[in-house]
Structures are given as C-alpha cells and as structure tokens.
Amino acid sequence: TRSTRPQRLLRAVQKKAIKGDPQSVISTIDYFCRHSEWAMNVGDEKGAILDSVVCEVSPSTALELGTYCGYSTVRIARLLPPGTKLITLEFNPDYAAVARQIIEYSGLQDKICLVEGASGDLIPKMQELFGIKTFDFVFLDHWKDRYLPDIKLLEECQLLRKGSILLADNVICPGTPDYLEYVRNSPLYESKYFKSHLEYTKVEDGLEKSVFLG
Ligand SMILES: CCCNc1ncnc2c1ncn2[C@@H]1O[C@H](/C=C/CNC(=O)c2cc(-c3ccc(F)cc3)cc(O)c2O)[C@@H](O)[C@H]1O
Ligand SMILES: [Mg+2]
Fold this sequence. Notes:
Elements: H1 5-16, H2 22-35, H3 43-57, E1 61-65, H4 71-77, E2 85-90, H5 93-106, E3 112-116, H6 119-122, H7 126-130, E4 137-140, H8 147-156, E5 165-168, H9 171-175, H10 177-185, E6 189-197, E7 204-212
Parallel strand pairs: 1-2, 1-4, 2-3, 4-5
Antiparallel strand pairs: 5-7, 6-7
Helix pairs in contact: 1-2, 1-5, 3-4
The structure holds ligand 705 and magnesium ion.
Residues 40, 66, 68, 89-92, 95, 118-120, 141-143, 146, 169-170, 173-174, 198-199 line the site of the ligand CCCNc1ncnc2c1ncn2[C@@H]1O[C@H](/C=C/CNC(=O)c2cc(-c3ccc(F)cc3)cc(O)c2O)[C@@H](O)[C@H]1O.
C-alpha cells in the first residue's frame, strides 16, 4: 500500500538530514513541506516565535499536546536547558511511530518523553506518571476543538501555576474561536496574539500566548 505523508516526511529526514543535528532535521522538514508536500507542522515562521517564547520561559517542565511528526517537539526540546524534559502527547499510533523516529534521528530522545494516548485521559495522570506538579510551558497544536476543554482540565488538575505560559498554534487558521474567547476574557489569563502566517503559505495565522494568573 502507498506510504503515508508522515512516512514520506520521515524518509526525507533519514535521507537528507544530518543524524544528531536537530537544526538540520528542522530545515529538512521545512524544505520538504515547502517544495514537496505541505504538512501541518508549525513551520519556520511561527516556529521562530515558538523558539523565542521557549527561550524566554526557559521551562523546567513543558507539555506539548499533539506531537504529529515531532517537528515542534524537536524545535522545543533543542532549546530546553539540560535536565529538563518535554512531555508530548500523541494519540495516533502511526504518527507516534514516525515522531519517535524523527526525535531519535535528531538525537534529542533524552529530553523528550512521547506518551501515546489522548490528552483528556493523560493530563489527569501527569502527577502520578511523571511526578509533575505544574507545567511552566504548554504548547497546544492538537485538534482545535480540544484546546479549550484541555486547558480547563489543566486548571482542574492544578497543573498550572502563577506565570505558567500557554502557547496555542492556529488560533486564526483553522481557528480556535471558543479557546480565544476564553483566554482573552477570563480573569485567569493575560493573553497576547502573535500575528504570523499559516505554515509554508501566505495565509494569515498566528499564535496566542496566555499567562495563567492563578
Ligand atoms: C482525543 C482528541 C484530543 N486529544 C488528543 N490527544 C493527543 N493527540 C491528539 C489529540 N487530538 C489530536 N491529536 C493529535 O494531534 C495532531 C493533530 C493536529 C491537528 N492540527 C490541525 O488540524 C492543523 C491544521 C492546519 C491546517 C490549516 C489549513 C488547512 F487548509 C489545512 C490544515 C494547520 C495546523 O497547523 C494544524 O495544527 C495529530 O497528530 C493527532 O493525532
Ligand atoms: Mg498547528
């Protein structure tokens, strides 16, 4: 049977990227998505904004919702201080399998813990599974109608603390209207929009950065 797009993306990384070099894995994926097949990675333009927020927060604990092929996972993990771990949740086993190989190729497997499963089931288990008390940084890039229920679950599970940073992809395209309305109007958050473009296109999109005020 025909290969899947994530498998073709993985093949491009194994063929063209330098093993153990996260930046070359990132550049290879961006080149593939720009010149061969578009894929829903956060991309280079929004990726630069993601990088700057990760560097500013310099999180000790970080969570990503929606690994997909692991592009943003590698982007985030390459900037984390030594001894810190990025937990990334992915419920599609085929995507998780591709992501594991891309993460391993980048050489960042010691900074990343990819957990297969649905965020709704796994978020309540973060304390027991990883001894995590709170997350300093959360990157949301999974199904757009799940952003709002999942941050409410993070609040309920007391996994956010004063100053925790949420960064959400695609708040314009495909859009996350209920999430935006909540973080922009709730007294629990201070929100800011970073205007950019949908990965590898000229279409407007952006990232919403929200600070939990506790
Ligand atoms: C149980 C469902 C909620 N919980 C979940 N827990 C764990 N992983 C989950 C997940 N939901 C989805 N996922 C995974 O996240 C990923 C889903 C991402 C969804 N992203 C998008 O739809 C998306 C879509 C676009 C897009 C934009 C314009 C367009 F024309 C076409 C697509 C651009 C993006 O940047 C996107 O992020 C997959 O790997 C999926 O298996
Ligand atoms: Mg996205």
